[in-house]
Amino acid sequence: MQEKIKIWIGSSNAGKTQEIQQIFSGFDTIANFEGFRGLEVEENGESFEENALIKARAFYRALGEGRGDGFVLADDSGLCVGALAGRPGIYSARYAYLSPANISKDSPKPIQNASDKENIACVIKELHQKSIHSSAATFVAAIALVGCVKGKYIEKLTRGELEGLVVDTPRGQNGFGYDGIFVPLGFERTLGEMEAFEKNQISHRRKALQEAKLFLQSL
Ligand code: IMP
């Protein structure tokens, strides 16, 4: 019997970890790996792909010499709003501290995580500054796989997108991040009004993870 491919999940987010484990159910997944705890990775890339790769490489290094065959899986994701020239983009998680709507010379903000509510408020404020109430937008997820098969080092990137509309009135209590202001194309409800299983069928992350799975199955 062929041995299952080992995948160390490079995320501490419970929702993402569960989604990854569902999609990679035929693989030997390792979640909440002790050796990744407390690892500080500076995400200083200029794209979702670069940041996902930076994380996956750092986690792979942290596995050390005895790691053998297997892959680290890491992701990076965010929301790109058309009317805002693609912002918040790679800065989605900490947008409230970086948004032009919030920065003035007298009050430089520290770069750290902001709450979902603060981030959403910034996007809405920027839409209103342009006198608009909605905009075409895209959720993007990049997945990086870094690992080894039969001693051969491999890096692989995949990307998934979800098109939709950003609105200026949050709706729904489900999900996280910008879900409450994002209406996927072909739907009337926001992601915040959808059940997790519905969102997971169409999500940007799902698409990128499926492509990553196909790649591993092709090895
Ligand atoms: P990261 O990929 O964990 O760095 O997350 C980036 C940020 O993008 C999150 O903190 C959210 O604000 C936003 N984001 C990414 N994916 C989603 C999603 O599926 N729904 C809502 N917000 C998301």
What does this structure look like?
This protein has 219 residues and is an alpha/beta fold. The protein has one domain: Maf protein (Alpha-Beta Complex), CATH 3.90.950.10. The protein is 28% helix and 25% strand. The protein has a six-stranded mixed sheet with strand order 2-1-3-4-5-6. The longest helix is centred in the N-terminal third of the chain and has 16 residues. The radius of gyration is 18 Å and the shape is globular. It binds inosinic acid. The site of inosinic acid has 15 residues, from strand 3.
Write the layout of secondary structure elements.
Elements: E1 6-9, H1 14-23, E2 28-30, H2 48-63, E3 70-81, H3 116-129, E4 134-149, E5 152-167, E6 182-184, H4 196-202, H5 204-217
Parallel strand pairs: 1-2, 1-3
Antiparallel strand pairs: 3-4, 4-5, 5-6
The structure holds inosinic acid.
Inosinic acid (IMP) binds at residues 75-79, 92-93, 119, 139, 175-179, 203.
Instruction: Give me the CATH fold name.
Output: Maf protein
Instruction: Name every ligand kind in the structure.
Output: inosinic acid
Largest sheet: 6 strands, mixed
Q: What would you call the shape?
A: globular
Tally the beta strands: 6
The strand line-up of the biggest sheet is 2-1-3-4-5-6
Order of helices and strands: EHEHEHEEEHH
Which class do the helix and strand fractions yield? alpha/beta
Distance between the termini: 16 Å
How many helices? The count is 5
Give the strand content: 15-25%
Q: Helical proportion?
A: 25-40%
CATH architecture level-2 label: Alpha-Beta Complex
- Highest-level CATH class: Alpha Beta
